[in-house]
Amino acid sequence: MTKFIFVTGGVVSSIGKxxxxxxxxxxxKSRDFAVSIIKLDPYINVxxxxxxxxxxxxxxxxDDGAETDLDLGHYERFTDTSMSKLNNVxxxxxxxxxxxxxxxxDYNGATVQVIPHITNEIKERIHRVxxxxxxxxxxxxxxxxxxxIESLPFLEAIRQFRKDVGRTQALYIHVTLIPFIESAHEMKxxxxxxxxxxxxxxxxxxxILVCRSDRPLPEGLKEKISNFCxxxxxxxISCQDARSIxxxxxxxxxxxxxxRVLELLNLPERTPDLVNxxxxxxxxxxxxxxxxxxxxxxxxxxSDAYISVVEALRHAAIAQDIQxxxxxxxxxxxxxxxxxxxxxxxSGLIVPGGFGQRGIDGKIQAIQYAREHNLPFLxxxxxxxxxxxxxxxxxxxLSGGANSTEFDPATPHPVISLLPEQEDVSALGGxxxxxxxxxxxxxxxxxxxxxxxxxxxxxxRHRYEFNNAYRRQFVDSGYxxxxxxxxxxxVEMIELPSHPYFIASQFHPEFRSRPNxxxxxxxxxxxxxxxxxxxxxxxxxxxxxxxx
Length: 548
Hints:
By secondary structure, this protein is of the alpha/beta class. It contains 19 helices and 23 strands. It folds into two domains: 3-279, 3-Layer(aba) Sandwich (Rossmann fold), CATH 3.40.50; 288-535, Rossmann fold (3-Layer(aba) Sandwich). Helix content is 39%, strand content 22%. β10 (208-213), α8 (219-229) and β11 (236-240) form a beta-alpha-beta unit.
Protein backbone atom coordinates (compact mmCIF):
# COMPACT_ATOMS: atom_id res chain seq x y z
CA MET A 1 0.00 0.00 0.00
CA THR A 2 1.07 3.55 -0.70
CA LYS A 3 2.37 5.51 2.29
CA PHE A 4 1.61 9.21 2.78
CA ILE A 5 3.77 12.00 4.21
CA PHE A 6 2.27 15.41 4.94
CA VAL A 7 4.56 18.45 5.11
CA THR A 8 3.25 21.57 6.84
CA GLY A 9 4.96 24.85 7.70
CA GLY A 10 4.84 27.25 10.59
CA VAL A 11 6.08 30.60 11.95
CA VAL A 12 6.70 32.32 8.58
CA SER A 13 5.85 31.82 4.94
CA SER A 14 8.53 30.82 2.38
CA ILE A 15 10.15 28.65 5.01
CA GLY A 16 11.17 26.01 2.49
CA LYS A 17 8.52 23.29 2.72
CA UNK A 18 8.83 22.64 -0.99
CA UNK A 19 12.60 22.10 -0.83
CA UNK A 20 12.21 19.87 2.24
CA UNK A 21 9.55 17.78 0.45
CA UNK A 22 11.64 17.60 -2.73
CA UNK A 23 14.77 16.70 -0.75
CA UNK A 24 12.98 13.93 1.13
CA UNK A 25 11.67 12.70 -2.22
CA UNK A 26 15.28 12.57 -3.48
CA UNK A 27 16.40 10.60 -0.39
CA UNK A 28 13.57 8.10 -0.76
CA LYS A 29 14.19 7.69 -4.48
CA SER A 30 17.90 7.15 -3.80
CA ARG A 31 16.71 4.14 -1.79
CA ASP A 32 14.75 2.85 -4.79
CA PHE A 33 11.29 3.91 -3.57
CA ALA A 34 8.89 5.28 -6.18
CA VAL A 35 7.78 8.77 -5.15
CA SER A 36 5.16 11.33 -6.16
CA ILE A 37 4.65 14.76 -4.59
CA ILE A 38 1.50 16.90 -4.37
CA LYS A 39 1.24 20.63 -3.67
CA LEU A 40 -1.95 21.76 -1.91
CA ASP A 41 -2.28 25.51 -2.50
CA PRO A 42 -4.80 27.46 -0.40
CA TYR A 43 -5.48 30.28 -2.88
CA ILE A 44 -8.86 30.49 -4.63
CA ASN A 45 -7.42 30.78 -8.15
CA VAL A 46 -8.08 27.53 -10.02
CA UNK A 47 -4.40 27.51 -10.98
CA UNK A 48 -1.58 30.09 -11.11
CA UNK A 49 -1.85 30.48 -14.89
CA UNK A 50 -3.53 33.90 -14.70
CA UNK A 51 -1.45 35.21 -11.80
CA UNK A 52 1.24 37.89 -12.19
CA UNK A 53 4.83 36.62 -11.81
CA UNK A 54 5.29 39.39 -9.24
CA UNK A 55 2.51 37.76 -7.18
CA UNK A 56 3.38 34.12 -7.61
CA UNK A 57 6.71 33.71 -9.36
CA UNK A 58 7.09 31.28 -12.21
CA UNK A 59 4.19 29.27 -13.61
CA UNK A 60 5.54 25.76 -14.08
CA UNK A 61 4.12 23.62 -16.90
CA UNK A 62 3.89 19.83 -16.78
CA ASP A 63 3.93 17.35 -19.65
CA ASP A 64 0.13 17.17 -19.70
CA GLY A 65 -0.20 20.95 -19.91
CA ALA A 66 -1.09 21.83 -16.32
CA GLU A 67 -0.10 25.33 -15.20
CA THR A 68 1.17 24.76 -11.68
CA ASP A 69 3.04 26.12 -8.71
CA LEU A 70 6.81 26.54 -9.12
CA ASP A 71 7.39 23.95 -6.38
CA LEU A 72 6.48 21.26 -8.90
CA GLY A 73 9.64 22.26 -10.74
CA HIS A 74 11.64 21.50 -7.60
CA TYR A 75 9.82 18.18 -7.21
CA GLU A 76 10.68 17.15 -10.77
CA ARG A 77 14.28 18.33 -10.64
CA PHE A 78 15.03 16.64 -7.30
CA THR A 79 13.23 13.35 -7.92
CA ASP A 80 13.66 13.18 -11.71
CA THR A 81 9.99 12.19 -11.86
CA SER A 82 7.46 13.89 -14.14
CA MET A 83 4.46 15.39 -12.38
CA SER A 84 1.02 16.09 -13.85
CA LYS A 85 -2.14 18.11 -13.28
CA LEU A 86 -2.92 15.69 -10.45
CA ASN A 87 0.05 16.98 -8.46
CA ASN A 88 -1.18 20.56 -7.94
CA VAL A 89 -4.43 21.14 -6.06
CA UNK A 90 -5.84 24.56 -5.20
CA UNK A 91 -8.77 25.75 -3.12
CA UNK A 92 -10.28 27.09 -6.35
CA UNK A 93 -10.09 23.73 -8.10
CA UNK A 94 -11.58 21.95 -5.07
CA UNK A 95 -14.53 24.30 -4.77
CA UNK A 96 -15.05 24.27 -8.53
CA UNK A 97 -15.26 20.46 -8.50
CA UNK A 98 -17.62 20.39 -5.50
CA UNK A 99 -19.93 23.03 -6.98
CA UNK A 100 -20.03 21.16 -10.30
CA UNK A 101 -21.03 18.00 -8.46
CA UNK A 102 -23.72 19.87 -6.56
CA UNK A 103 -25.12 21.31 -9.84
CA UNK A 104 -25.28 17.80 -11.31
CA UNK A 105 -27.10 16.53 -8.24
CA ASP A 106 -24.32 14.18 -7.18
CA TYR A 107 -24.97 14.90 -3.50
CA ASN A 108 -28.63 13.84 -3.70
CA GLY A 109 -29.99 17.08 -2.30
CA ALA A 110 -27.67 17.23 0.71
CA THR A 111 -26.55 20.55 2.16
CA VAL A 112 -23.02 21.00 0.81
CA GLN A 113 -20.55 21.98 3.53
CA VAL A 114 -16.83 22.35 4.14
CA ILE A 115 -16.99 19.18 6.23
CA PRO A 116 -17.45 16.61 4.78
CA HIS A 117 -17.74 17.67 1.13
CA ILE A 118 -14.71 19.95 0.73
CA THR A 119 -12.47 17.82 2.94
CA ASN A 120 -13.60 14.65 1.15
CA GLU A 121 -12.73 16.20 -2.21
CA ILE A 122 -9.26 17.10 -0.90
CA LYS A 123 -8.70 13.56 0.33
CA GLU A 124 -9.94 12.16 -2.97
CA ARG A 125 -7.35 14.24 -4.86
CA ILE A 126 -4.58 12.76 -2.70
CA HIS A 127 -5.86 9.22 -3.19
CA ARG A 128 -6.16 9.86 -6.95
CA VAL A 129 -2.42 10.40 -7.25
CA UNK A 130 -1.76 7.13 -5.43
CA UNK A 131 -4.22 5.24 -7.67
CA UNK A 132 -2.98 6.70 -10.94
CA UNK A 133 0.79 6.64 -10.42
CA UNK A 134 1.20 3.72 -7.95
CA UNK A 135 4.10 5.19 -5.95
CA UNK A 136 5.47 3.68 -2.78
CA UNK A 137 5.23 7.08 -1.10
CA UNK A 138 3.14 10.19 -1.79
CA UNK A 139 4.48 13.38 -0.22
CA UNK A 140 1.91 16.13 0.27
CA UNK A 141 3.05 19.71 0.82
CA UNK A 142 0.39 21.93 2.38
CA UNK A 143 0.88 25.50 1.19
CA UNK A 144 0.63 28.49 3.49
CA UNK A 145 1.39 28.65 7.19
CA UNK A 146 -0.34 26.93 10.09
CA UNK A 147 -2.76 29.47 11.53
CA UNK A 148 -3.81 30.88 8.14
CA ILE A 149 -7.58 30.74 7.83
CA GLU A 150 -7.45 29.65 4.17
CA SER A 151 -5.38 26.54 5.04
CA LEU A 152 -7.84 25.15 7.57
CA PRO A 153 -9.81 22.87 5.18
CA PHE A 154 -6.58 21.28 3.98
CA LEU A 155 -5.31 20.75 7.51
CA GLU A 156 -8.62 19.23 8.56
CA ALA A 157 -8.49 16.92 5.53
CA ILE A 158 -5.01 15.65 6.34
CA ARG A 159 -6.00 15.24 10.00
CA GLN A 160 -8.81 12.95 8.89
CA PHE A 161 -6.56 11.20 6.38
CA ARG A 162 -4.44 9.43 8.96
CA LYS A 163 -7.55 8.16 10.73
CA ASP A 164 -8.82 6.82 7.40
CA VAL A 165 -5.68 4.96 6.30
CA GLY A 166 -4.11 4.00 9.64
CA ARG A 167 -1.27 5.36 11.75
CA THR A 168 1.50 3.38 10.05
CA GLN A 169 0.35 4.56 6.60
CA ALA A 170 0.79 8.30 7.15
CA LEU A 171 2.98 10.71 9.08
CA TYR A 172 3.28 14.44 9.61
CA ILE A 173 6.39 16.57 9.15
CA HIS A 174 6.29 20.16 10.36
CA VAL A 175 8.84 22.66 9.02
CA THR A 176 9.49 25.54 11.37
CA LEU A 177 11.95 28.34 12.17
CA ILE A 178 14.55 28.60 14.90
CA PRO A 179 15.72 32.24 14.84
CA PHE A 180 19.02 33.45 16.27
CA ILE A 181 18.58 36.60 18.34
CA GLU A 182 21.76 38.58 17.85
CA SER A 183 21.38 40.76 20.96
CA ALA A 184 20.93 37.70 23.16
CA HIS A 185 23.43 35.52 21.25
CA GLU A 186 20.92 32.72 21.51
CA MET A 187 18.74 30.53 19.30
CA LYS A 188 15.07 30.66 20.30
CA UNK A 189 12.67 27.74 20.16
CA UNK A 190 9.57 29.64 21.29
CA UNK A 191 8.26 30.31 17.72
CA UNK A 192 8.48 26.57 17.04
CA UNK A 193 6.66 25.76 20.28
CA UNK A 194 3.83 28.13 19.39
CA UNK A 195 3.61 26.77 15.86
CA UNK A 196 3.39 23.17 17.06
CA UNK A 197 0.77 24.16 19.64
CA UNK A 198 -1.27 25.75 16.85
CA UNK A 199 -1.02 22.55 14.83
CA UNK A 200 -1.93 20.38 17.81
CA UNK A 201 -4.95 22.57 18.56
CA UNK A 202 -6.51 21.38 15.29
CA UNK A 203 -5.73 17.75 16.02
CA UNK A 204 -2.38 17.15 14.28
CA UNK A 205 0.61 16.01 16.31
CA UNK A 206 3.76 16.23 14.16
CA UNK A 207 5.93 13.12 14.07
CA ILE A 208 9.01 14.95 12.82
CA LEU A 209 10.13 18.57 13.12
CA VAL A 210 12.45 20.04 10.49
CA CYS A 211 13.95 23.16 12.03
CA ARG A 212 15.20 25.85 9.68
CA SER A 213 18.04 28.00 11.01
CA ASP A 214 21.13 29.87 9.90
CA ARG A 215 23.38 27.66 12.06
CA PRO A 216 23.35 24.11 13.49
CA LEU A 217 20.98 23.31 16.35
CA PRO A 218 22.80 22.50 19.61
CA GLU A 219 21.89 19.12 21.06
CA GLY A 220 20.54 20.82 24.18
CA LEU A 221 18.12 22.84 22.08
CA LYS A 222 16.94 19.69 20.31
CA GLU A 223 16.15 18.17 23.71
CA LYS A 224 14.26 21.29 24.74
CA ILE A 225 12.19 21.27 21.54
CA SER A 226 11.58 17.55 22.04
CA ASN A 227 10.22 18.10 25.55
CA PHE A 228 7.99 21.05 24.70
CA CYS A 229 6.67 19.71 21.38
CA UNK A 230 6.29 16.02 22.36
CA UNK A 231 8.53 14.83 19.54
CA UNK A 232 11.47 12.43 20.10
CA UNK A 233 14.83 14.21 20.05
CA UNK A 234 16.01 12.08 17.12
CA UNK A 235 12.98 13.37 15.18
CA UNK A 236 14.05 17.00 15.65
CA ILE A 237 15.94 17.56 12.41
CA SER A 238 18.30 20.49 11.92
CA CYS A 239 18.09 22.11 8.48
CA GLN A 240 20.73 24.81 8.32
CA ASP A 241 20.83 27.35 5.49
CA ALA A 242 22.87 26.04 2.56
CA ARG A 243 24.74 27.72 -0.28
CA SER A 244 22.63 25.80 -2.77
CA ILE A 245 19.28 24.04 -2.56
CA UNK A 246 21.02 20.94 -3.95
CA UNK A 247 22.96 20.59 -0.70
CA UNK A 248 19.76 20.21 1.33
CA UNK A 249 19.16 16.48 0.60
CA UNK A 250 22.68 15.62 1.79
CA UNK A 251 22.29 17.67 4.97
CA UNK A 252 18.94 16.05 5.75
CA UNK A 253 20.50 12.64 5.07
CA UNK A 254 23.22 13.41 7.63
CA UNK A 255 20.52 14.37 10.12
CA UNK A 256 18.79 11.01 9.63
CA UNK A 257 15.50 12.31 8.22
CA UNK A 258 14.97 9.45 5.77
CA UNK A 259 15.83 6.81 8.38
CA ARG A 260 13.28 8.27 10.77
CA VAL A 261 10.61 8.36 8.03
CA LEU A 262 11.21 4.73 7.07
CA GLU A 263 11.07 3.68 10.70
CA LEU A 264 7.75 5.45 11.33
CA LEU A 265 6.16 4.11 8.14
CA ASN A 266 7.44 0.55 8.62
CA LEU A 267 9.32 0.67 5.33
CA PRO A 268 12.52 -1.34 4.82
CA GLU A 269 15.79 0.49 5.33
CA ARG A 270 17.91 0.50 2.19
CA THR A 271 21.35 1.90 1.49
CA PRO A 272 20.96 5.20 -0.36
CA ASP A 273 22.73 5.76 -3.67
CA LEU A 274 23.72 9.43 -3.57
CA VAL A 275 26.97 9.13 -5.55
CA ASN A 276 25.77 11.28 -8.45
CA UNK A 277 24.23 13.85 -6.11
CA UNK A 278 27.49 14.17 -4.18
CA UNK A 279 29.38 14.54 -7.44
CA UNK A 280 27.00 17.36 -8.34
CA UNK A 281 27.88 19.22 -5.15
CA UNK A 282 31.61 18.67 -5.66
CA UNK A 283 31.38 20.17 -9.14
CA UNK A 284 29.58 23.19 -7.71
CA UNK A 285 32.27 23.66 -5.07
CA UNK A 286 35.24 23.36 -7.44
CA UNK A 287 34.47 25.12 -10.73
CA UNK A 288 37.30 25.45 -13.24
CA UNK A 289 36.07 28.74 -14.68
CA UNK A 290 33.70 31.58 -13.91
CA UNK A 291 31.42 33.27 -16.47
CA UNK A 292 28.80 36.00 -16.40
CA UNK A 293 25.65 35.46 -18.46
CA UNK A 294 23.03 38.17 -18.76
CA UNK A 295 19.30 37.59 -18.39
CA UNK A 296 17.22 40.39 -19.91
CA UNK A 297 13.70 40.12 -18.56
CA UNK A 298 10.56 41.91 -17.47
CA UNK A 299 10.36 40.50 -13.93
CA UNK A 300 14.01 40.59 -12.82
CA UNK A 301 13.07 42.16 -9.48
CA UNK A 302 11.73 38.73 -8.51
CA SER A 303 14.14 35.93 -9.38
CA ASP A 304 11.44 33.30 -8.71
CA ALA A 305 9.77 34.45 -11.93
CA TYR A 306 12.62 32.74 -13.84
CA ILE A 307 13.56 30.01 -11.39
CA SER A 308 13.54 27.14 -13.92
CA VAL A 309 15.73 29.16 -16.30
CA VAL A 310 18.20 29.84 -13.49
CA GLU A 311 18.29 26.19 -12.47
CA ALA A 312 18.65 24.94 -16.06
CA LEU A 313 21.61 27.28 -16.56
CA ARG A 314 23.12 26.06 -13.30
CA HIS A 315 22.71 22.40 -14.36
CA ALA A 316 24.59 23.04 -17.61
CA ALA A 317 27.31 25.01 -15.85
CA ILE A 318 27.89 22.30 -13.22
CA ALA A 319 28.18 19.66 -15.93
CA GLN A 320 31.01 21.68 -17.52
CA ASP A 321 32.81 22.58 -14.25
CA ILE A 322 31.91 26.23 -14.68
CA GLN A 323 30.35 28.70 -12.29
CA UNK A 324 27.88 30.95 -14.06
CA UNK A 325 26.93 34.21 -12.38
CA UNK A 326 23.72 35.76 -13.66
CA UNK A 327 23.56 39.44 -14.47
CA UNK A 328 19.93 40.41 -13.91
CA UNK A 329 19.10 43.09 -16.48
CA UNK A 330 15.77 44.91 -16.69
CA UNK A 331 14.49 45.13 -20.26
CA UNK A 332 13.15 48.60 -19.43
CA UNK A 333 16.63 49.74 -18.37
CA UNK A 334 18.00 48.56 -21.72
CA UNK A 335 15.35 50.70 -23.43
CA UNK A 336 16.51 53.76 -21.52
CA UNK A 337 20.29 53.40 -21.70
CA UNK A 338 21.02 51.04 -24.58
CA UNK A 339 22.15 47.42 -24.75
CA UNK A 340 25.91 48.09 -24.76
CA UNK A 341 25.63 49.65 -21.30
CA UNK A 342 24.60 46.29 -19.84
CA UNK A 343 25.78 43.59 -22.27
CA UNK A 344 29.37 44.61 -23.03
CA UNK A 345 31.72 42.13 -21.35
CA UNK A 346 29.11 39.39 -20.85
CA SER A 347 29.83 35.85 -22.01
CA GLY A 348 26.27 35.00 -23.02
CA LEU A 349 22.67 36.22 -23.08
CA ILE A 350 19.29 34.70 -22.27
CA VAL A 351 16.00 36.39 -23.14
CA PRO A 352 13.24 34.38 -21.40
CA GLY A 353 9.46 34.25 -21.71
CA GLY A 354 6.78 36.68 -20.61
CA PHE A 355 3.63 38.45 -21.70
CA GLY A 356 2.69 42.01 -22.57
CA GLN A 357 4.22 45.10 -24.19
CA ARG A 358 6.33 46.39 -21.30
CA GLY A 359 10.06 46.06 -21.91
CA ILE A 360 9.73 44.51 -25.36
CA ASP A 361 11.90 47.09 -27.12
CA GLY A 362 14.61 46.51 -24.54
CA LYS A 363 14.58 42.79 -25.26
CA ILE A 364 14.77 43.48 -28.99
CA GLN A 365 17.72 45.85 -28.52
CA ALA A 366 19.54 43.23 -26.42
CA ILE A 367 19.00 40.58 -29.10
CA GLN A 368 20.25 42.93 -31.79
CA TYR A 369 23.41 43.55 -29.76
CA ALA A 370 23.95 39.79 -29.32
CA ARG A 371 23.48 39.19 -33.05
CA GLU A 372 25.81 41.98 -34.12
CA HIS A 373 28.54 41.28 -31.54
CA ASN A 374 28.57 37.45 -31.83
CA LEU A 375 27.43 37.17 -28.20
CA PRO A 376 26.02 33.66 -27.55
CA PHE A 377 22.24 33.97 -27.32
CA LEU A 378 19.39 31.72 -26.21
CA UNK A 379 15.80 32.91 -26.64
CA UNK A 380 12.89 31.23 -24.86
CA UNK A 381 9.25 31.59 -25.97
CA UNK A 382 8.81 35.39 -25.99
CA UNK A 383 12.58 35.53 -26.44
CA UNK A 384 12.22 33.74 -29.76
CA UNK A 385 9.37 36.03 -30.80
CA UNK A 386 11.50 39.09 -30.02
CA UNK A 387 14.35 37.60 -32.04
CA UNK A 388 12.00 37.21 -35.02
CA UNK A 389 10.81 40.81 -34.67
CA UNK A 390 14.41 42.07 -34.43
CA UNK A 391 15.41 40.25 -37.62
CA UNK A 392 12.33 41.46 -39.45
CA UNK A 393 13.09 45.06 -38.55
CA UNK A 394 16.85 45.18 -38.93
CA UNK A 395 17.83 42.50 -41.45
CA UNK A 396 14.80 41.55 -43.53
CA UNK A 397 14.04 45.30 -43.67
CA LEU A 398 10.28 44.87 -43.74
CA SER A 399 9.02 48.31 -44.67
CA GLY A 400 6.95 49.99 -41.99
CA GLY A 401 8.35 47.75 -39.24
CA ALA A 402 7.77 44.23 -37.99
CA ASN A 403 5.96 43.40 -34.78
CA SER A 404 3.70 40.95 -32.98
CA THR A 405 -0.05 41.41 -33.07
CA GLU A 406 0.09 40.99 -29.29
CA PHE A 407 1.83 44.37 -29.09
CA ASP A 408 0.47 46.12 -32.19
CA PRO A 409 -2.65 44.61 -33.79
CA ALA A 410 -2.32 47.05 -36.71
CA THR A 411 1.35 46.36 -37.51
CA PRO A 412 2.01 46.26 -41.27
CA HIS A 413 4.19 43.16 -40.82
CA PRO A 414 2.79 40.79 -38.17
CA VAL A 415 5.75 38.41 -38.13
CA ILE A 416 4.33 37.03 -34.87
CA SER A 417 0.59 36.43 -34.80
CA LEU A 418 -2.12 34.69 -32.85
CA LEU A 419 -2.44 30.96 -33.36
CA PRO A 420 -5.55 30.30 -35.52
CA GLU A 421 -7.09 28.04 -32.88
CA GLN A 422 -6.77 30.90 -30.35
CA GLU A 423 -8.82 33.44 -32.32
CA ASP A 424 -12.16 32.68 -30.67
CA VAL A 425 -10.73 32.09 -27.19
CA SER A 426 -11.90 34.66 -24.64
CA ALA A 427 -11.01 32.98 -21.34
CA LEU A 428 -7.43 33.32 -20.09
CA GLY A 429 -6.97 30.43 -17.66
CA GLY A 430 -5.80 27.14 -19.17
CA UNK A 431 -6.42 28.21 -22.77
CA UNK A 432 -2.85 28.65 -24.08
CA UNK A 433 -1.03 26.06 -26.18
CA UNK A 434 0.19 24.01 -23.26
CA UNK A 435 2.15 20.88 -22.48
CA UNK A 436 4.34 18.47 -24.37
CA UNK A 437 4.54 18.75 -28.18
CA UNK A 438 6.89 17.10 -30.65
CA UNK A 439 9.39 19.17 -32.65
CA UNK A 440 11.16 17.87 -35.76
CA UNK A 441 14.71 19.20 -36.05
CA UNK A 442 16.23 20.22 -39.38
CA UNK A 443 19.04 17.96 -40.67
CA UNK A 444 22.57 19.31 -40.13
CA UNK A 445 21.26 22.18 -38.02
CA UNK A 446 22.74 23.44 -34.75
CA UNK A 447 19.56 22.22 -33.05
CA UNK A 448 20.03 18.67 -34.33
CA UNK A 449 23.70 18.77 -33.33
CA UNK A 450 22.78 19.81 -29.78
CA UNK A 451 19.99 17.26 -29.32
CA UNK A 452 21.75 14.40 -31.15
CA UNK A 453 18.34 13.48 -32.49
CA UNK A 454 15.88 14.38 -35.22
CA UNK A 455 12.81 14.83 -32.97
CA UNK A 456 12.42 16.22 -29.47
CA UNK A 457 9.51 16.58 -27.06
CA UNK A 458 9.23 19.93 -25.28
CA UNK A 459 6.77 21.82 -23.08
CA UNK A 460 4.93 24.88 -24.39
CA ARG A 461 3.03 27.83 -22.92
CA HIS A 462 2.09 30.42 -25.51
CA ARG A 463 -0.71 31.91 -27.58
CA TYR A 464 1.31 33.59 -30.36
CA GLU A 465 3.48 32.00 -33.05
CA PHE A 466 5.77 32.75 -35.98
CA ASN A 467 3.61 33.91 -38.89
CA ASN A 468 4.04 31.39 -41.72
CA ALA A 469 3.43 34.11 -44.32
CA TYR A 470 6.98 35.33 -43.62
CA ARG A 471 8.83 32.01 -43.72
CA ARG A 472 10.28 32.49 -47.21
CA GLN A 473 11.43 36.06 -46.57
CA PHE A 474 13.22 35.06 -43.39
CA VAL A 475 14.92 32.02 -44.91
CA ASP A 476 16.00 34.00 -47.97
CA SER A 477 17.56 36.68 -45.75
CA GLY A 478 19.71 34.19 -43.79
CA TYR A 479 17.50 32.92 -40.97
CA UNK A 480 17.21 29.18 -40.45
CA UNK A 481 14.01 27.52 -39.31
CA UNK A 482 15.55 24.57 -37.51
CA UNK A 483 12.51 23.16 -35.71
CA UNK A 484 8.93 22.53 -36.87
CA UNK A 485 5.89 20.80 -35.44
CA UNK A 486 5.44 17.30 -36.88
CA UNK A 487 2.78 18.57 -39.29
CA UNK A 488 5.20 21.40 -40.28
CA UNK A 489 2.51 23.94 -39.49
CA UNK A 490 4.24 25.69 -36.58
CA VAL A 491 7.77 27.10 -36.34
CA GLU A 492 9.25 25.83 -33.08
CA MET A 493 12.93 26.86 -33.37
CA ILE A 494 15.10 29.33 -35.26
CA GLU A 495 18.87 29.78 -35.51
CA LEU A 496 21.49 31.87 -37.33
CA PRO A 497 24.07 29.68 -39.13
CA SER A 498 26.44 32.64 -39.46
CA HIS A 499 26.56 33.23 -35.68
CA PRO A 500 28.69 31.29 -33.14
CA TYR A 501 25.58 30.50 -31.06
CA PHE A 502 22.25 32.13 -31.80
CA ILE A 503 19.25 29.88 -31.23
CA ALA A 504 15.74 30.33 -29.89
CA SER A 505 12.73 28.14 -29.19
CA GLN A 506 9.01 28.74 -28.95
CA PHE A 507 8.89 26.12 -26.21
CA HIS A 508 10.35 26.23 -22.69
CA PRO A 509 13.38 23.91 -22.53
CA GLU A 510 14.08 24.95 -18.95
CA PHE A 511 11.15 22.83 -17.73
CA ARG A 512 12.87 19.60 -18.81
CA SER A 513 16.35 20.24 -17.43
CA ARG A 514 17.54 18.13 -14.49
CA PRO A 515 20.64 18.40 -12.26
CA ASN A 516 22.06 15.12 -13.59
CA UNK A 517 20.70 15.63 -17.12
CA UNK A 518 21.14 19.25 -18.26
CA UNK A 519 19.12 20.44 -21.23
CA UNK A 520 21.01 20.50 -24.58
CA UNK A 521 20.14 24.12 -25.38
CA UNK A 522 21.57 25.33 -22.07
CA UNK A 523 24.59 23.05 -22.44
CA UNK A 524 25.23 24.62 -25.83
CA UNK A 525 24.88 28.14 -24.42
CA UNK A 526 27.37 27.53 -21.61
CA UNK A 527 29.89 25.93 -23.98
CA UNK A 528 29.54 28.84 -26.41
CA UNK A 529 29.82 31.34 -23.54
CA UNK A 530 33.06 29.70 -22.42
CA UNK A 531 34.53 30.00 -25.92
CA UNK A 532 33.33 33.59 -26.20
CA UNK A 533 34.95 34.48 -22.88
CA UNK A 534 38.25 32.95 -24.00
CA UNK A 535 38.20 34.85 -27.29
CA UNK A 536 37.26 38.06 -25.46
CA UNK A 537 40.18 37.67 -23.05
CA UNK A 538 42.53 36.93 -25.94
CA UNK A 539 41.32 40.01 -27.82
CA UNK A 540 41.78 42.17 -24.71
CA UNK A 541 45.39 40.98 -24.37
CA UNK A 542 46.45 41.88 -27.91
CA UNK A 543 47.00 45.63 -27.29
CA UNK A 544 49.03 44.84 -24.17
CA UNK A 545 51.33 42.51 -26.12
CA UNK A 546 51.82 45.16 -28.79
CA UNK A 547 52.79 47.75 -26.19
CA UNK A 548 55.39 45.41 -24.73
